[in-house]
Design goal:
The chain is an alpha+beta fold. It has five domains: about 325 residues, Glycoside hydrolase, family 3, N-terminal domain (TIM Barrel); about 200 residues, Rossmann fold (3-Layer(aba) Sandwich); about 120 residues, Trefoil (Acidic Fibroblast Growth Factor, subunit A) (Trefoil); about 120 residues, Immunoglobulins (Immunoglobulin-like, Sandwich), CATH 2.60.40; about 120 residues, Galactose-binding domain-like (Jelly Rolls, Sandwich). The chain is about 20% helix and about 30% strand. The chain contains 20 helices and 50 strands. The strands form 13 sheets. Strands 16, 17, 18, 19, 20, 23, 24 and 27 form an eight-stranded antiparallel sheet that branches. It has a six-stranded mixed sheet with strand order 12-30-29-28-13-15, sandwiched between helices. Strands 40, 42, 43, 45, 48 and 50 form a six-stranded antiparallel sheet that branches. Strand 29, helix 17 and strand 30 form a beta-alpha-beta unit. The protein starts with 14 loop residues before the first helix and ends in a 15-residue tail after the last strand. The relative contact order is 0.09.
Length: about 950
């Protein structure tokens, strides 16, 4: 007689019942084992091993050949939700297909990244969609819907959003703290995550490396207070790699790893990504935390239940493993996927400027020049290209190889030291790095030791020398291979390109007398000559550089002989701006500046095509060149797409997903997360950008008319008509913005305008369409710090329709009956220190290790908080401040002022109440000055002044 399967394998039972049944069958040791990224098999129950985490930012990454779509910022530039949803479906389908033949491919996808592109110098700019929370969330909803699939119960893949929360810096990323005040938290950072969670497409989130308000994200109370309140669905929180250990090792937030691991688990981290495949370290910490009473069985069961919930939804415990396990649905590198990759690359191209140069006629003789002209770049989160198209490839295919000339613009040099000329051994001219090998292990890109190292001798090798800016250079051998340094320290011409977690292909030329020391950026050592070959060592060798030809001379020759020039410039995604490395400037590297200037001097019909992971400040190029384009690195079809736009086969309709500033001086400090106070992004920036958010031109023109706005109940209905008034069919990205009532903004900094909705539409020449949008009235709101709530102010709002945030074609006013912005009831409710309207010289820190916030002066100096509209009623006579540390708190309101002196209270979390007389009445502004190394949590006001020394109340975290 055959035993019936256990309840957890019965797909007819409710999910919760199945999860509970399986959980009950696991021992405590087995449960703990499931909490590491690499969860082992439970053979006695027939349960397979499971790995959380498969990178799939713009295609399946690191697991071999796959369809490679444009970078995430490029997908954001399409402003096309439907297209991105289709890409998500394709990526998830390929993940399933790849898993069918390789069980190392996971179905818990760590994608997309929804961190807002607040600051363009962030090294991981390429991973986000936009600086705007609404556009970011719209694209994220589309991508995760495609990844998840449409089945009501079964998921094609299980996407995890990255990185919770307020994460925009690689500099000191595991120890720096983002100071995020309540308005920025609610109006900006949380909104990027919420829509995808609300839509039911998300299996979980990944906390970021950094701290927010002095507390590491991996023990953030926001996971409980916000994220998990948005949905009844179980969400799996997966740690970032190594972050659990950082809580002790680099952040020193806890004294022991057992305390740290327990705190993270209790806060809501369910899967620990730490120590690679060695799960014993984490499971040992959890077991010891359990033994020490820092954790309960219930804490562990809660996390295990979330882990199992994801696996059930993926169909793992169903007969046949669910509908998405059907081999008939396993599509990989299909014609449809290839066409989708090309369409996405075409839609991502943004025409920044065009004075009539583009599109180029069929018979144009083109010089395509520049360091990226014959490159199809991948990045750290790309899959291995099955096929590739560079701008040179695309233009030759489109215009004919005989009509396209090429110059890469690299400097041609020879390098000599006392031992002779630097040279690549003749026996290695055919060595190549295999792309499939790289995909399976990215370290192989720079780890080859099977090739002979460089030598020095009487015969020189000519190298291509490129200055990428910031003191970073690469050297390329005649066969195209890059000089690289492997673990054995020898220098070889062995790499297809820069890459790896620590890039081994970049060098710095350090002036030394009449020559140079060649510093290896990856190790900090210097290129030196030894008996067995050229290697990196502590003792440097002095080299002289003989220039055979400057890159700009070759570019000028090619440009002079052409009818038009396309200069392709930008970045290598592994150099000067990537994960672990922020940029230091918006400027284009000087080498590339020289190239476009040389091209223009030789031929004024020059266009600059920027192919990059982030914005540049190219004001000079905008002034002097007739046309500029931008696209993110566009994946496998990048070159074909760019060529079709240049030829006019496609009218460009990409739109900028972030502001392009004119100069570095427009930027705040990288670590300043207060977009309101420091006037960041198009929402608050008071200057004139080089190119505004939402900007993008095309080869047609569009008219806007008949804007109508009305509200019914809790919905705002807005409609307008768009007409293609040009002579060619083209896409238009219609954008709807809102602007809040100015009369309600006294003392309240509202955005200049904010995106409410968008739609990309294709219209034939002369065609029109009516666009209708429905918005919840709550979308017009803001976080009212005076009353700690979301509110919609009453008054006259403006609906703004147009082609960009600064190209507004139509405006309509509408009166909204919102909630009046009442004064702060400070006499009854007091003041939370973080509820300020303005600040200078302060930062938000953790109130305790587990919850709450406080404010302190930066570096223990002096800072000030401003609270507008404080209602003291018919009068107060005293004030109490809840503080930790020592120093003084000054309160100033009009001509009334007092100082509360604070003796040192002990530790950073040892709070006490201190009081002083403070007589004030009516509604007025209050300034609070903090002096010294103290933390202010709250202020309370009393009807009478204190009659005696205050009673101290201590709270310890």
């Amino acid at each position: 007689m055959t035993a019936s399967p256990p309840p957890f394998r019965d797909p007819e039972l409710p999910l919760d019942q199945r999860v509970d049944d399986l959980l009950s069958r696991l021992t405590i040791r087995e449960r703990i084992a499931l909490l590491h990224q690499f969860a082992p098999a439970v053979e006695r129950l027939g349960i397979a091993a499971f790995r959380t985490g498969q990178e799939a930012l713009h295609g399946v990454a690191w697991m071999g050949p796959a369809t490679v779509f444009p970078q995430a910022v490029g997908l954001g530039a399409t402003w096309n939700d439907d297209l991105v949803r289709s890409i998500g479906e394709a990526v998830a389908t390929e993940a399933r297909a790849m898993r069918a033949r390789d069980d190392r491919v996971g179905l818990n996808l760590w994608a997309p990244t929804v961190n807002l592109l607040r600051h363009p110098l962030w090294g991981r700019n390429e991973e986000g969609y936009s600086e705007d929370p609404r556009l970011t969330s719209a694209i994220a909803v589309a991508y995760t819907r495609g990844l998840r699939g449409e089945h009501p119960d079964h998921w094609r893949t299980a996407p995890v959003l990255k990185h919770w929360l307020a994460h925009n810096n690689e500099t000191d990323r595991d120890t720096s703290s983002a100071s995020v005040r309540p308005r920025v938290l609610h109006e900006y950072d949380l909104r990027a995550f919420r829509a995808a969670v609300d839509a039911g497409n998300v299996a979980g989130v990944m906390p970021a490396y950094n701290l927010v308000n002095g507390r590491p994200n991996h023990v953030s109370p926001y996971l409980r207070e916000h994220l998990r309140t948005w949905t009844d669905q179980e969400l799996l929180v997966c740690s970032d790699a190594g972050a659990p250990s950082n809580l002790v090792d680099s952040e020193k937030y806890f004294d022991t790893h057992e305390e740290a691991t327990a705190a993270a688990l209790v806060a809501g981290v369910d899967s620990f990504t730490d120590h690679g495949t060695d799960a014993s370290v984490i499971t040992g910490r959890i077991q010891r935390a359990l033994d020490q009473g820092l954790l309960s069985d219930a804490d562990i069961d809660t996390a295990v239940r979330r882990h199992l919930s994801v696996r059930f939804r993926l169909g793992e415990f169903d007969p046949g493993q669910g509908p998405y396990a059907d081999p008939a649905s396993h599509a990989f590198d299909t014609p449809e996927h290839r066409a989708l990759a090309q369409e996405a690359a075409e839609q991502a191209v943004v025409l920044l400027k065009n004075d009539g140069l583009l599109p180029l006629p069929e018979d144009t003789r083109i010089a395509v020049v520049g360091l990226l002209a014959d490159e199809c770049m991948t990045d750290w989160y790309s899959g291995t290209l099955i096929r590739r198209s560079t701008p040179l490839d695309g233009l030759r295919e489109r215009f004919g190889a005989d009509r396209v000339t090429f110059a890469d613009g690299a400097d041609r040099v020879r390098l000599k030291c006392e031992a002779g000329w630097l040279r690549v051994p003749d026996s290695e001219v055919d060595g190549q790095v295999k792309g499939a090998e790289i995909a399976l292990d990215p370290a192989l890109l720079t780890g080859r030791t099977d090739l002979a190292p460089l030598t020095c001798g009487p015969e020189p090798t000519e190298f291509a020398l490129v200055d990428w800016g910031g003191g970073t250079w690469t050297l390329r051998a005649p066969d195209g291979r890059y000089l690289s340094v492997a673990d054995d320290g020898f220098v070889r011409a062995s790499a297809d390109g820069p890459g790896g977690w620590v890039v081994q292909e970049t060098f710095a030329l350090v002036g030394h007398g009449d020559g140079y020391l060649i510093e290896h950026r990856g190790t900090g050592g210097y290129v030196s000559v030894a008996a067995d070959g050229v290697k990196v060592a502590d003792e440097p060798q002095v080299f002289t550089v003989e220039y055979l030809e400057r890159g700009e001379d070759a570019v000028a020759r090619a440009a002079a002989e052409a009818d038009a020039v396309i200069v392709v410039a930008g970045n290598d995604p592994h150099i000067n701006g990537r994960e672990t490395e922020d940029r230091t400037t918006l400027d284009l590297p000087p080498h590339q500046e020289r190239l476009w200037r040389a091209a223009r001097a030789a031929n004024p019909r020059t266009a600059l095509a920027l192919v990059s992971a982030y914005p540049y400040a190219v004001a000079e190029a905008h002034t002097h060149l007739p046309a500029l384009l931008w696209t993110a690195h566009g994946g496998q079809a990048a070159g074909t797409a760019l060529a079709r736009v240049i030829a006019g086969d496609v009218s460009p309709a990409g739109r900028l997903p972030q502001t392009w500033y004119a100069a570095d001086t427009d930027l705040p400090d990288l670590l300043d997360y207060d977009i309101i106070g420091s006037r960041q992004t198009y929402l608050y920036f008071d200057g004139t950008p080089l190119y505004p958010f939402g900007h993008g031109l095309g080869y047609s023109s569009f008219g806007y008319e008949d804007l109508v706005a009305a509200w019914e109940g809790e919905l705002l209905r807005v409609g307008f008509t768009v007409t293609n008034t040009g002579s060619v069919g083209a896409d238009e990205v219609a954008q709807l913005y809102t602007r809040g009532p100015r009369e309600a903004a006294a003392g309240l900094a509202l955005p200049h305008r904010q995106l409410a909705a968008h739609r990309r539409v294709h219209l034939a020449a002369g065609a029109s369409c009516r666009l209708e949008f429905q918005l919840p009235l709550t979308e017009l709101g803001f976080w009212d710090v005076r009353h700690d709530r979301w509110a919609v102010a009453p008054g006259a709002y403006e609906m703004l329709a147009g082609a960009s945030s600064s190209d507004i074609r139509l405006a309509a006013g509408i009166d909204i009956e919102g909630t009046p912005i009442a004064p702060r009831p400070v006499r009854e409710a007091g003041l939370a220190a973080t509820g300020y309207d303005e600040q200078s010289g302060t930062e938000i820190v953790d109130r305790t290790r587990t919850t709450g916030d406080a404010v302190c002066a930066q570096a223990g100096g002096t800072g000030e908080l401003v609270f507008r509209g404080c209602d003291f009623g018919d009068g107060v006579g005293g004030v109490s401040v809840e503080v930790a540390g020592g120093g003084a708190v000054d309160l100033i309101s009009g001509s009334t002022a007092t100082t509360v002196t604070v003796p040192a209270t002990g530790g950073a979390y040892d709070y006490a109440l201190h009081s002083s007389g403070f007589t004030v009445s009516g509604v007025r502004d209050l300034r609070v000055r903090l002096r010294g190394p103290l933390r202010l949590a709250r202020l309370a006001f009393t009807a009478t002044a204190p009659a005696a020394a205050p009673e101290l109340r201590s709270e310890t975290a």
